[in-house]
Structures are given as C-alpha cells and as structure tokens.
Specification:
With about 220 residues, the chain is an all-alpha fold. Helices cover about 30% and strands about 5% of the residues. The protein has two domains: about 35 residues; about 140 residues, Orthogonal Bundle (Chloroperoxidase), CATH 1.10.489. The chain has a two-stranded antiparallel ribbon. The longest helix has 13 residues. It is globular, with a radius of gyration of 20 Å. Bound molecules: 2-acetamido-2-deoxy-beta-D-glucopyranose (2 copies). The site of one 2-acetamido-2-deoxy-beta-D-glucopyranose has 7 residues, from loops.
C-alpha cells in the first residue's frame, strides 16, 4: 500500500524537476524519504520471520467469551454491537478481563493496542487472535463502530500477514504453524512484526514503519 503511494510520489516529483534540484533549506520536498536503498539498509528491528524464537503456548485459550453480566457494547461473534460506549473497561468485577501480565509463552508485538487487548483477555491472551475477536474487542473496548472495527481487523489480517482461510493472525512474531489453515503450504505468515511482505498503515496510533525510520 505504502509502496504504491511512494512510487506515485516519485513519478510526480520527476514531473517537476525543479522541486528536486533545490538545495538545503530551499528544498520544497524532503526527497531522502524516497531513497529506497536507504530504507533497505535499515536494520529490521522486528525480524519478518523468526518462528523459532516465537513464544509457543500449546494450550491456546480464545478470548473470554462475551458475558451478559458485562455486556460493554454487546459486540459478539464479529457482529455489530450497540455502539453506545460510556462505560468503564474493564468493568469493576469483570474478573475475566482483568490485567494479567503476559507469560513467556504469550506473543506480544509492536501494537500497544493489541498488546493491551491481549493482556486483558479481550483477544486471546497468547497473542494468536482472529478476525471476530479483534472486531468484537475494538467495539467493546475502544467503542469503534462495527464498520471501522471490521476494516481495521481485516487490514491487520490480510496486510498484516495473517491467514485469510483460518482468519487468524499473530499480534507479534511469526507463528505460522498456529495461524495457517494449512501451514505446510502457507509459506510464512510473519504476524504484525513482519515488515517485509506488506506494509500496512493499519494502526490507529502508530506511525508507519517504512517512513518513520523503523520507529513505529
Ligand atoms: C510451532 O512452532 C513453535 C516455534 O515457534 C514450536 O515450538 C512448536 O512446537 C510448533 N508447533 C507445532 C504444532 O508444530
Ligand atoms: C461472566 O463474567 C464473570 C466475571 O468476569 C464470571 O465470573 C462469570 O463466570 C461469567 N459468566 C459467564 C456465563 O461466563
């Protein structure tokens, strides 16, 4: 997605050579951002695929099921909730969604929002989640509308390196053997840590990895 935008930008600045020839402070456009080699040379702080070091929890427990005692926005099974908001999350007494520090077998990743949802069991605490869990969590916790929650989840799944058959993805490192419907033919699904296949501007709160010197 980002690469398409950049190549469009390259061709449009090439059409205006004066923009590129200006020096120093006169520069109207910082073209160094377009230097693909510079970005290639950058150290990838999140290895795209490193399944060996990815925490492994053999006992995947899905997000705490929706509970009528603590309905939040009533979002359940990936369907639209009520979109009302105006409540405390987690609600007092909602033990299922209390903070639990991740263990050594839990995956955490570059998105603080996803990490938070996992720490509170709104998505699976082991960090292997799916489309419906994230769609519900974004509505119940962040009071996003269903359409936005669904789009965000879908973008994270498809461009953020998940599996469109199983609808699962890792919120961090490469856990292909748990996210793929058919791991032996799926190739690598590097999870949200992966930055070399597709770069998605899928985060609500973080800058893009490619244009922000890897600081996202
Ligand atoms: C999946 O990969 C992890 C390493 O990330 C490994 O520890 C685990 O045994 C694998 N599980 C299966 C079912 O192959
Ligand atoms: C609802 O949530 C509470 C606290 O989180 C829990 O004690 C209770 O067992 C849950 N009820 C159901 C039906 O899951």
């Amino acid at each position: 997605m980002k690469l398409t935008a950049i190549s469009l930008l390259v061709s449009s600045t090439a059409a205006f050579p004066a923009l590129l020839n200006l020096k120093g402070n006169e520069k109207l456009l910082d073209t160094s951002v377009l230097d693909l080699n510079k970005h290639k040379a950058k150290k990838n702080i999140y290895p795209a695929a490193d399944p060996k070091n990815c925490p492994f929890n053999p006992d995947h427990v899905p997000a705490a099921p929706w509970n009528a005692s603590f309905p939040y926005n009533h979002a359940n099974n990936g369907l639209p909730g009520k979109g009302k908001g105006g409540y405390q999350v987690p609600a007092p007494g909602d033990e299922e969604h209390r903070f639990i520090h991740p263990t050594a077998t839990d995956i955490r990743g570059p998105c603080p929002g996803m990490n938070m949802l996992a720490n509170h069991g709104f998505i699976a605490r082991d960090g292997i989640t799916d489309l419906a869990e994230v769609t519900d969590a974004c509505q119940n916790v962040f009071n996003m509308g269903w359409d936005l929650a669904n789009v965000i989840s879908l973008v994270a799944l498809v461009l953020g390196d998940g599996d469109i058959v199983s609808r699962k993805f890792s919120i961090g490192c490469d856990a292909t053997n748990r996210t793929a419907a058919a791991p032996q033919v799926a190739g690598s699904q590097p999870g949200l840590n992966g930055h070399n296949n597709f770069e998605a501007d899928a985060s609500m709160g973080r800058d893009d990895f490619f244009l922000n010197e890897g600081d996202n």
